[in-house]
Amino acid sequence: MNLVFVCTGNTCRSPMAAAVAMDKMARDPDRYRDLALVSCGLFAQPGAPISAGAADALDRHGLKAGDHRAMQLTPDHVAAADLIVTMTSAQAAQLKAAFPDAGAKIRPLAARDIRDPFGGDADDYEEAYQDIDQAVAALLEEIAKEDAS
Fold first, then answer.
1. Residue 88 lies in domain
2. What gap in Å lies between CA 131 and CA 114, rounded to an integer?
3. Which residues belong to any copy of the Phosphotyrosine protein phosphatase I domain (predicted)?
């Protein structure tokens, strides 16, 4: 399964979601061996690094974003994806409008939007991290159950 996490600039939420997911996948590699993931942005500046606040939030939880560089979501990402997960319902709606044939595989990560912490303080990034961590755990559990059936 190919999973794409999407946020606005691919410097905060989607790279945090990817780092959280990769950490959880590494803890149970047999369960997630068929899962590949990438993170992209709707309005990314290609090559931009993860924001310092997002990197610090990950670091506080023992996670790293590696050498993350922002990528713009492309039609190729959409075509290759089995599931495209956005950080907000508005982002999901925007993608469904732009890629109507892919609508069935586009959805928000959580029932409530993950607020963009960009430009905020450490508490804003921590709140986003906590929301992402919980939602990614639920998503991975859902994917694992689907794969098992």
1. 2-148
2. 7
3. 1-142
